[in-house]
């Protein structure tokens, strides 16, 4: 991520204003819908990042797309990004904003990969194990048969690898030395 520092600064500023106005949840949803539009239409993002197109034309395009669909706060924020020539950081800003909102709510997002489909009971047990210090855990579970057995949990940058494949790989590494 080339814009990590920039994204953090802008996301923190937007979060600060949104929390003052009690609009944290609505801004998060609006940013999510904007990012969905950008992800489903990558050519739009190419136009918005194109250096040959004027800032005013880009701002007009964004206003036409999102006027009435998002709050004035979010629309003004997008215009600020264009004025500061930071439109290339929109995706990272959105992701960082969600992280800030989750941290304020005491929510952790985790990805769980398992060799077989986990039952609801197993997921609930895993949630209770990971949900320490009053944090609430949200899972995105998926099946990955290449793990052979066990599971892999990703929480932010941390990976907890309890898979058979991971254990075999660690064992192979110890045999090298």
UniProtKB/TrEMBL annotation:
Transmembrane segments: none annotated. It is found in: Cell membrane; Membrane. Pfam families: OSCP. It is a peripheral membrane protein. Its main location: membrane. PROSITE patterns: ATPASE_DELTA. Gene3D superfamilies: N-terminal domain of the delta subunit of the F1F0-ATP synthase (1.10.520.20). Keywords: ATP synthesis, Cell membrane, CF(1), Hydrogen ion transport, Ion transport, Membrane, Transport. The keyword Nucleotide-binding does not apply. F(1)F(0) ATP synthase produces ATP from ADP in the presence of a proton or sodium gradient. F-type ATPases consist of two structural domains, F(1) containing the extramembraneous catalytic core and F(0) containing the membrane proton channel, linked together by a central stalk and a peripheral stalk. During catalysis, ATP synthesis in the catalytic domain of F(1) is coupled via a rotary mechanism of the central stalk subunits to proton translocation. Belongs to the ATPase delta chain family. HAMAP family: ATP_synth_delta_bact. This is ATP synthase subunit delta. The gene is atpH.
């Amino acid at each position: 991520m080339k814009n990590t520092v920039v994204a953090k600064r802008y996301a923190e500023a937007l979060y600060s204003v949104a929390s003052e106005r009690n609009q944290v949840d609505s801004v998060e949803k609006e940013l999510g819908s904007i990012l969905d539009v950008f992800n489903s239409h990558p050519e739009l993002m190419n136009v918005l990042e194109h250096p040959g197109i004027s800032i005013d034309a880009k701002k007009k395009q964004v206003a036409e797309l999102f006027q009435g669909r998002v709050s004035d706060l979010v629309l003004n924020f997008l215009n600020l990004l264009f004025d500061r020539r930071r439109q290339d950081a929109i995706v990272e800003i959105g992701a960082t904003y969600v992280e800030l909102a989750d941290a304020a709510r005491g929510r952790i997002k985790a990805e769980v990969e398992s060799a077989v489909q986990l039952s609801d009971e197993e997921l609930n047990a895993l949630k209770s194990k990971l949900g320490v210090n009053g944090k609430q855990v949200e899972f995105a579970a998926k099946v990955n048969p290449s793990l052979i057995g066990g599971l892999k949990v990703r929480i932010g940058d941390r990976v907890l690898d309890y898979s058979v494949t991971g254990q075999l790989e660690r064992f192979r590494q110890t045999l090298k030395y």
